[in-house]
Design the sequence.
């Protein structure tokens, strides 16, 4: 069991980088109640209560990002690396908290060293948050990479599902695709429009740079106690036997929207990840296990090479 710390000591150790990464999981875990990946303190981690304004998720992300930057600098200085470089922006399918022994697509590409990776993705971020922040514009201008990976929208759908406005309640005989509400279809339209605006801006600024996008594989609502998807389908009265088909309809609609957004831009390549992890286990209802994410990473690498 980890030594309990005051909030001040924990935060100082985190900001200074003194706390070893392998010890973080003794203090921090994923929030079981959040509809998107989000970190919280373990119940017995601290001797006092953090301020209400404290953003643990952001603090941990910055800690891990700083470590990754230092490692990238060391690799580029002392190790032979590919001449080709890539910037990745997105959500938990590109980046997961490494101290929880979780690697996502961009994490694996970094591990493989076939490409020089700068991963600025962040678990839990929605497409709206990513575009509002616009960090990718700054990083692309600085790094001038050969490739740009952009993947988001899943968290937007999960938040809508958690609020209860993405799908209709269960009705026997309703077709899977007919469960998406008008509010849900409006969200898909916003995702498509927002993605197209990203592709238009980035391809306009860097016409020679290749952009790669995706629309996720089919989730498994029965895995991991339905943390991100399954529990909300149950709340709508949807039987377990019918849940996979309804979730597949959501992912099919999202993939079509991602494809639609990409089709007008010759420098954008859409990768269809559906069924790519069919033979792999999943960690929870929204994320493949490490081996599944590695298979997806190779799919991106092969497309770029």
Sequence:
């Amino acid at each position: 069991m980890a030594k309990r710390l005051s909030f001040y000591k924990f935060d100082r150790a985190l900001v200074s980088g003194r706390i070893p990464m392998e010890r973080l999981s003794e203090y921090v875990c994923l929030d079981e109640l959040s509809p998107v990946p989000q970190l919280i303190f373990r119940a017995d981690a601290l001797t006092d209560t953090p301020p209400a304004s404290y953003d643990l998720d952001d603090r941990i992300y910055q800690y891990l990002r700083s470590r990754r930057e230092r490692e990238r600098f060391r690799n580029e200085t002392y190790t032979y690396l590919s001449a080709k470089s890539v910037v990745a922006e997105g959500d938990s399918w590109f980046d997961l908290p490494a101290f929880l022994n979780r690697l996502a697509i961009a994490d694996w590409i970094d591990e493989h060293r076939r490409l020089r990776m700068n991963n600025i993705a962040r678990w839990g971020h929605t497409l709206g948050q990513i575009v509002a922040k616009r960090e990718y514009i700054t990083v692309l201008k600085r790094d001038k990479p050969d490739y740009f990976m952009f993947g988001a929208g899943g968290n937007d759908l999960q938040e809508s599902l958690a609020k209860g406005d993405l799908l209709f309640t269960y009705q026997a005989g309703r077709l899977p695709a007919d469960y998406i509400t008008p509010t849900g279809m409006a969200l898909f339209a916003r995702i498509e429009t927002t993605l197209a605006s990203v592709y238009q801006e980035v391809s306009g600024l860097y016409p020679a740079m290749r952009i790669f996008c995706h629309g996720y594989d089919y989730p498994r609502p029965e895995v991991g106690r339905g943390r991100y998807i399954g529990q909300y389908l149950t709340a709508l009265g949807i039987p377990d036997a019918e849940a996979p088909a309804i979730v597949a309809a959501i992912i099919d609609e999202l993939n079509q929207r991602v494809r639609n957004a990409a089709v007008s831009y010759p420098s954008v390549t859409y990768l269809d990840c559906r069924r790519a992890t069919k033979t792999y286990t999943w960690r929870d209802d929204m994320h493949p296990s490490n081996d599944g994410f590695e298979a997806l990473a190779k799919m991106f690498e092969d497309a770029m090479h």
